[in-house]
């Protein structure tokens, strides 16, 4: 891999997040498992990438650490169960 896809893959590898990369003529797609979604988006946003999720919470990940997001997610998960 070269370019931006290699940089993103390396960032996610640092967090032990496996990916499925799909490249097309116009763009690259990086797929992660649902259980790694928040951690991956936080890592990318924290590294300066703009995270587009198609969901209203996309900007939530800006300026937050992985640990803060995972703590908050754990608290919410406990409330949901």
Q: What would you note in describing this structure?
A:
The chain is 46% helix and 10% strand. By secondary structure, the protein is mainly alpha-helical. The chain has one domain (3-80): 2-Layer Sandwich (Alpha-Beta Plaits), CATH 3.30.70. Strand 1 (20-23) and strand 2 form a beta hairpin. The longest helix is centred in the C-terminal third of the chain and has 15 residues, at 66-80.
Topology readout:
Elements: H1 3-14, E1 20-23, E2 28-31, H2 37-46, H3 66-80
Strand count, sense and barrel status of the largest sheet are: 2 strands, antiparallel
| CATH architectural type | 2-Layer Sandwich
Distance N to C terminus: 41 Å
* Poorly predicted sequence stretches spanning 5 or more consecutive residues: none
Please give the count of helices.
3
Overall body shape: elongated
The percentage helix is 40-55%
In CATH's first tier, which class applies? Answer: Alpha Beta
Q: What assembly state would you assign to the polypeptide chains in this entry?
A: single chain
The proportion of strand residues reads 5-15%
Q: Spell out the helices and strands N to C.
A: HEEHH
Gist of the model:
With 81 residues, this protein is mainly alpha-helical. It contains 3 helices and 2 strands; from the N terminus they run H-E-E-H-H. It has one domain (3-80): Alpha-Beta Plaits, CATH 3.30.70.
Keywords:
46% helix, single chain, 81 residues, mainly alpha, two-stranded antiparallel ribbon, Alpha-Beta Plaits, elongated
